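input
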Amino acid sequence: MLSFISRRLGTMALTMLCLTLVVFFLINLEPNLKKLAISQTKMRTTAEQLESWLQRNGYRQNFFVRYGQWLGVVQKQPNIDPATGQAVPRFRFCNEAAEPTYSGILQGDFGCSTKFKTPVATKLFPALGATGILMFWVLVTMVPISLLIGILAGMREGSRTDRTLSVASIATTATPEYVSGVIFTVIFASWLGWLNGSAASASQGITFYNFTLPVMTLAIYGIGYIARMTRASMVEVMTQQYIRTARLKGLSFGNVVVKHALRNALIAPFTVIMLQFPWLLTGVVIVEVMFRYQGFGYTLVEAAGNNDIDLLLGCSLVSVFIVLITQLISDVGYAYLNPRIRVQ
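output
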């Protein structure tokens, strides 16, 4: 198992390197650099002045040199003030060094946010923490309900309960977040007046009234998907020979389900649940913008809309890491849950 985890960690590192290289290339395309220069200078700046700004701030260096600087394996060179000839930091509002230094991802420096005028880490990690709280409550709500629905539907295939729960699961899965979010806002915030339709204040203080609608919007889609997978797994397990043997021995239906069927039926849903983390990263972008929740998705949209290159790179790095680490946890957990799997 240790050798398997070591190999997977090596594969993860190589995958992150390749993906970040691709993202770095796409973000630093010429149109994006031009937009960044325009946003950081006056709108009527001439093309020569824009080019001078890009040159002065190091955006015209060799692509692989810049990528190495972002990683922290190549020294960052300070800018030279043409008036005094002295070395000056690239962005003064981030307290960047005015001398050559190794300062990149490997050193814990994610760069400088040109939109928020602050180091990327001071903006990214609080936003990631706010999204982590949101995702935690989504999982706490989504997983137990979906497993219960799937187990109840799969215990007696073809029954009225199975058909009712299956239709409800399909309906929730077929409804995207931007539709269910609007529906919940109209019903619970506008018509009934029970909940606050905006979660903008959630970062200052999370309450039931300003936090419930984002959680409901994210959870409702995942509930149907996990419930369908759990039902399919439960139906398959209930047709196995050892289940018939247990029933013939005189065990009650409840004991057969709890002691024999349930653990095996949860193997496949476990993998599906772990794969919800990458989906939640994309889902929070829609929901956080809709409810103005100051989290990771909202920050990502702000960075993309304002050509904030360093913040976009930081968001992409976090996204890739979360996707890869959850897949590793899923593989290890699957091996422990299913004794038939042997890691060579």
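quick obs: The beta strands are 79-80, 87-88, 112-113, 118-119.
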